[in-house]
Amino acid sequence: METYDVIIIGTGAGGGTLARHLAPSGKKILLLERGDWLPREPQNWLSQNVFVENRYVSEDTWYDEKGKPFQPQIHYFVGGATKLYGAALYRLRAEDFGELAHHDGISPAWPISYDELEPYYTQAEQLYQVHGARGEDPTEPPSSAPYPHPAVSHEPRIQQLSDQLAAAGYHPFHAPCGILLNEANMAYSTCVRCANCDGFPCPVHAKADAEVLGVRPALEHANVTLLRNAKAVRLETNESGTAVTDVVVEHNGGTENFAGNVVVVACGAANTARLLLASANDKHPNGLANGSDQVGRNFMFHDSVAVLALSREENPTVYQKTLGLNDFYFGSDDFEFPLGNIQMVGKSQAPMFHGEKPGETKLAPEWTLERVARHAIDFWLSTEDLPRTENRVSVDRDGKLTLSYAETNAEAKKQLYEKLHSILGKLDLNPGHLFHRFAYMKNEIPVAGCAHQAGTCRFGADPGTSVLDVDCKAHELDNLYVVDTSIFPSIGAVNPALTAMANSLRVGDRLLERLAA
Ligand SMILES: Cc1cc2nc3c(=O)[nH]c(=O)nc-3n(C[C@H](O)[C@H](O)[C@H](O)COP(=O)(O)OP(=O)(O)OC[C@H]3O[C@@H](n4cnc5c(N)ncnc54)[C@H](O)[C@@H]3O)c2cc1C
Ligand code: SF4
After folding, report:
1. What is the rounded CA–CA span in Å between residue 255 and residue 225?
2. 338 CB under 6 A from ligand 1?
3. Integer Rg of the chain from CA
4. What is 185-222 written as a DSSP string?
5. Residue 441 per-residue DSSP state
6. Ligand 1 pocket residue status of 343, Cβ below 6 Å
7. DSSP code at position 446
8. 76-95: average pLDDT
9. Cystine design at 426: which of 25, 168, 223, 379 (Cβ 3.0–4.6 Å)?
10. How far is the centre of ligand 1, averaged over its atoms, from the C-alpha of 360 (Å)?
């Protein structure tokens, strides 16, 4: 059996970014991805297929703590969840790296400071071609370089919203967007600025995702191999349990072993924990790297809520995700704890409403679904979820995955909603017409909506309370690393992908030093 210098398991934000960073080293690198290429097909852009029929959602069944099965909103493709993501590429705030008091408890500090990650945020913004404008968002952390691309312009209705927010004393800003858009020369722009971006795959490969900007550039190097439809099911160690020797993979209907000198797991928070837990052996009876009993614990996702406000006038916006508001990120005049981030979400479309009659809601019957969609301005509110040891992924002998979860910071989430509600009257929006969008979409978000999952293998200086060391190497194994969102000790209230990408680049530098030694 040939031995690879590095095996990377998973090709999403964490794994795909690392692959690109390591590729020029010339080292023999194997990428293992359980999914296939996401097919480029007309259905990519059809909301009926994507949102109603869940065409690109995995068929996995997971279980909640009461044993109730659910289908997690998870995506197995080359590029991972970034194939479907909204590409809002935010940095965590500098304060998120320290300890922060929240309504429901403490958001713990990271073992590295914002300053240590800052150069990698800058690199990640360049790699993922982020468009944005510095200096507009008062909570923005310091940066060593401007955004590599100009902010995506607001369409008229969103510009009007921005102007009204500013006039009311708030600080709206141009949201950081990872799309390959060239507004100055649309004839040469890869992105066509369409309405079907957030939650949809991009068939013209104009989204800054980990397939287009991570895996494909990595594969231009002859030393990098990608094995698709290759699901890692177990990691084997040497007899003393100090190093991973092989990755056991289900592929082509059989099982194959691949040997690596360094093994990096980047399967996404739940699946990374599952792989380590399923790799228990005599030397690691509770799961690989799990002497601290922290593998699978501290599962977080964002306490998010999508809401639509009905504008008195129509909202003809096509690409809506251009505005953000962090005025309540750290609290408000009447609430001393952090509330979170407000941003726009992809414009709602009638087919997304699953055919529910508007009369089922508080709306008057003359509001048809099409009319609701035409007048909707759609917001996405995210409040930080806190790590609780009881919120965890566990796996039984048959590989059945249970996700036990109880919500945190519900009061802060409610307060953030109230804040948005209270400012609508100032925005020519009808305050009586603010609705939870999932009431329409019949999407019971709780645990199934795990798009922003994080935190199951946190990194830290203390082997007693963390799984990984500061370089994201397992405390207990010499050659096992993790680079996806599972490393997060806390999640902040902004979208997580850019932080996973930046951290991959940071860990990638440590790996390059190790490989060169
Ligand atoms: C609809 C949607 C919208 C989102 N919008 C945003 C946004 O606007 N901004 C933002 O920052 N974030 C957004 N996110 C979240 C973002 O996509 C994730 O935080 C990010 O992709 C996580 O990166 P990761 O490397 O941890 O996992 P992933 O990107 O999910 O990658 C994990 C990879 O591992 C593979 N894998 C899993 N198990 C195995 C196995 N056993 N063997 C081999 N391969 C395996 C998977 O197929 C996948 O390719 C969104 C997510 C979704 C679903
Ligand atoms: S807005 Fe651009 S990146 Fe997004 S799906 Fe449309 S073409 Fe693709």
Report:
1. 18
2. no
3. 22
4. GGGG-S----S--TTS--TTS-B--TIIIIIHHHHTST
5. H
6. no
7. T
8. 98
9. 168
10. 34
pLDDT tens figures, 143-158: 999 999 999 999 999 9
In angstroms, the Cα distances linking 78 to 67, 227, 249 are 30, 10, 16
Residue 127 CB–ligand 1 contact under 6 Å = no
Regarding the beta carbon of 88 and ligand 2, being less than 6 Å apart is answered: no
Handedness of CA 343, 345, 348, 352 (dihedral sign): negative
Separation of 512 CA from ligand 2 center, angstroms?
A: 34
- DSSP letter at 323 equals E
d(CA 170, CA 426): 11
Q: Which ligand is nearest to the CA of 492?
A: 1
Task: Find residue 107's DSSP bridge partners.
Answer: 100
The CA distance from 31 to 466, in Å, is 26
The answer to whether the CB of 197 is under 6 A from ligand 2 is yes
DSSP bridge partners of 454 = 300
What letters, b where the CB count within 10 A reaches 16 and e where it falls short, cover 81-99? bbbbbbbbbbbbbbbbbee
CA distance 405 to 486: 16
> Which is higher by pLDDT, 432 or 343?
343
Amino acid of residue 313: E
